[in-house]
Structures are given as structure tokens and as C-alpha cells.
Backbone:
């Protein structure tokens, strides 16, 4: 990771020069200040600001958001002293957006190889494409979860933007995307053809109203992801007034914090990005303040990880075997004795086992186990099974 500092500008003085109280995050984090680049050895989390919004077709500027968010984040209490956190500063954007995506891919690829979790503060959500490319560089098949009021597929003929980044990932060849999950879409923003496409690809999409009925039921979907990308426009305007696509409907701030905490608690999730808030236009700082709370809950979740990796070691899990008349093979469930969370094992052909070793163990809930006992095969089991066939 030589010369990593060449990619970054220091965090602004308004953040670095504050005398933080001992209990605040800013007092313990290693921040890239003028002339001092943080030592990333033994770091668990690396915060990266990316002031890039040239492909935001709403025309809104997200470039000031990373530093404004930091001003709120570093004044919050540090309840996770077991985490070593570094702030690498703000990425120097490229001459073109493609240059920026390539730089993001290179930096995140290096961090992921060191088992450091990149925490990205954007910028517009098309930066998720650069995040995906980091995994592609390793030949690593991944799942992406997106909390967003839209799918961001766009039309194949449309120019690449923050509203079409998913389409560009889907069309990559070779492709390293195993599953995509949208959480919180709002039907009146969605092209019906986009729903048809996601259905054909056996991707997951959860409507806002369904997600809000029982937010705990969303936890397995997030636990199944390697990469979580959040469009702050998914939050209702009353809670986050300055986003790229403000809407009167959406998740509450508390609900988004809960989802971020689930993401942090997942041992599978290895990168996290927060995008599309326009902090520079927010005189009260409300949206950036909420973004800081979302990040805080993610950090708290990471500090609570239990080391649940059922694809690596099933011996530490309770095993439950369910036979059904509809399915020839048994459905095998595993429950963690550390966290009480559940997984289903989906039969994977031997020749695909190494490629999909991290995806045949599908996160689920106790309700899925109860369904199977009634001979109702859970939808998430079927969707994964079909992809293997």
C-alpha cells in the first residue's frame, strides 16, 4: 500500500483543529491532517471522503458533504474503543469520472486485501461502481445491497450516471455480481420494466411499506451483502431535507440507523457507502448530522461482531434438518450459538462450491425455519437454489 497518501487531500482544518473531549470519536481517530498521513497498520475501519458528483444528473452538488459530516461525526461519543479507525482524508478526484472510479477501485482493493473496511462518504451513488470494481480486481463474487427509493438501473442507451450505475455493473463481462437487493423502493418512482428485469435476474427488491412493517425482517437481507450502498434520498424529507431526490415518504432516520447497525454487525459485509446528501446546501446541518448518526450506528455494529462465518466452520452452530415432501433433499438450517442468528444451506454443485463458497449459506430468520416445518420452502432458499442450477 505504498504511496496511498498520494491519492488523498487532508481533512479540512475545521475538523482537524478541534480540541475534542476524551470521550469523543475525534479524540481517538487517526485523521489525515496537513503533513501527517495516518498509519493504517492494524486499522479496522478506513473513512474515505469522495467529493465526486459530476455524474449526479439531478445537478446537485454533494462535494462538501464528507467534511461537513465529519464535523458532526467526530463530536459523537466513542462507545467502541475496540475499533481502530483511520480517516484517510478526501480522495483527489480524477480528470474524468472514470479516473475517479479507477482510483476508488484501486484504493478499496488494497484496503479489502488488508481486511480493512472502507467507509465511504460521498459524493453521488455512482461511486458504488468503483466500489464494485475493487472486488472485481480480486475476482471475488459478491452481493450488493442498496437502500434506495429507486433501483438506479436506467436505460441501456442512457449515459452512465448516479441513476444507472447498477445497469453498468450487471452488464460487466465477466460478471462478479451474484445477487442484488434493493431495500425501500417506492413504486411511483420505478419503471415497471425495471421490476421485470430484477425478477428475471432473481434479485431481491423490498418495497418501502413492506420493509417498515417489521424492520428486523430486513436484517438477513443486509447480512447477506458484501457491499452496502445507501442513497440518503431513501429517508423521508422531514428527517433528511437536503438530498439529491427529497421525497415526503421514506424511511425515518431511526430506521436507517437500525439498518446501518445491522450492516455493521454482519461478519460478511466488508464495505459501506453513504451517498447523495447535499450538506453544503443545508444551513441547519440536519442532513449531515443524521448521516453522522447513521455512520455511528454502523461503527457500533462493527464493534459488536461475533465472528459468525458458517461457511468456514459449521461446528460452532446448532444444526436443524427439515424434510419436506416437495423437495427431494432436506433443508438444513444453522443457528449461531454466539448471536442466535439463522442461516439456510442451499445445495450447491461441487464444481461451483469454490466460486460460491460465501453464498450457499443464506442468512434467514427463525420464521423461515418455522415456514419450512410447515413444508413452505422460503423464497430466499428458492432464489439461491435457482441461481446454482
Residues:
Amino acid at each position: 500500500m505504498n504511496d496511498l497518501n498520494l491519492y488523498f487531500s487532508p481533512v479540512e482544518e475545521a475538523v482537524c483543529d478541534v480540541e475534542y473531549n476524551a470521550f469523543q470519536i475525534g479524540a481517538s481517530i487517526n485523521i489525515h491532517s496537513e503533513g501527517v498521513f495516518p498509519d493504517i497498520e492494524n486499522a479496522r475501519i478506513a473513512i474515505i471522503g469522495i467529493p465526486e458528483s459530476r455524474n449526479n444528473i439531478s445537478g446537485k452538488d454533494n462535494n462538501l458533504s464528507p467534511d461537513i459530516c465529519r464535523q458532526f461525526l467526530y463530536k459523537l461519543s466513542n462507545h467502541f474503543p475496540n475499533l481502530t479507525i483511520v480517516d484517510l482524508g478526501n480522495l483527489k478526484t480524477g480528470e474524468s469520472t472514470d479516473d475517479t472510479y479507477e482510483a476508488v477501485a484501486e484504493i478499496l482493493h488494497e484496503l479489502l486485501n488488508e481486511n480493512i473496511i472502507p467507509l465511504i462518504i460521498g459524493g453521488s451513488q455512482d461511486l458504488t461502481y468503483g466500489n464494485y470494481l475493487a472486488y472485481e480486481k480480486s475476482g471475488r463474487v459478491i452481493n450488493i445491497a442498496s437502500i434506495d427509493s429507486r433501483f438506479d438501473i436506467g436505460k441501456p442507451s442512457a449515459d452512465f450516471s448516479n441513476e444507472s450505475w447498477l445497469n453498468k455493473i450487471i452488464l460487466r463481462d465477466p460478471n462478479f455480481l451474484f445477487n442484488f437487493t434493493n431495500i425501500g423502493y417506492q413504486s411511483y418512482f420505478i419503471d415497471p420494466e425495471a421490476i421485470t428485469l430484477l425478477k428475471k435476474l432473481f434479485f431481491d427488491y423490498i418495497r418501502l411499506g413492506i420493509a417498515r412493517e417489521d424492520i428486523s425482517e430486513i436484517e438477513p437481507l443486509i447480512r447477506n451483502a458484501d457491499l452496502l450502498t445507501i442513497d440518503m434520498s431513501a429517508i423521508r424529507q422531514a428527517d433528511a431535507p437536503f438530498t439529491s431526490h427529497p421525497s415526503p415518504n421514506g424511511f425515518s432516520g431511526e430506521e436507517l440507523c437500525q439498518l446501518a447497525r445491522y450492516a455493521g454487525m454482519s461478519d460478511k459485509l466488508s464495505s459501506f457507502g453513504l451517498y447523495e446528501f447535499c450538506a453544503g446546501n443545508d444551513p441547519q446541518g440536519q442532513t449531515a448530522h443524521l448521516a453522522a448518526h447513521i455512520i455511528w450506528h454502523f461503527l457500533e455494529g462493527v464493534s459488536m461482531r461475533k465472528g459468525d462465518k458458517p461457511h468456514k466452520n459449521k461446528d460452532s452452530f446448532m444444526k436443524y434438518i427439515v424434510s419436506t415432501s416437495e423437495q427431494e433433499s432436506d433443508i438444513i438450517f444453522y443457528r449461531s450459538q454466539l448471536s442466535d442468528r439463522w442461516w439456510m444451506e442451499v445445495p450447491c454443485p461441487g464444481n461451483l462450491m469454490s466460486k460460491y463458497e460465501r453464498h450457499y449459506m443464506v442468512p434467514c430468520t427463525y420464521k423461515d425455519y418455522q415456514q419450512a416445518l410447515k413444508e413452505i420452502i422460503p423464497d430466499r432458499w428458492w432464489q439461491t437454489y435457482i441461481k446454482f442450477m
Summary: The CA atoms of residues 239 and 256 lie 11 Å apart. The domain at 4-303 is CATH 3.40.800.10 (Arginase; Chain A). The chain is about 30% helix and 20% strand. The longest helix spans residues 286-303.
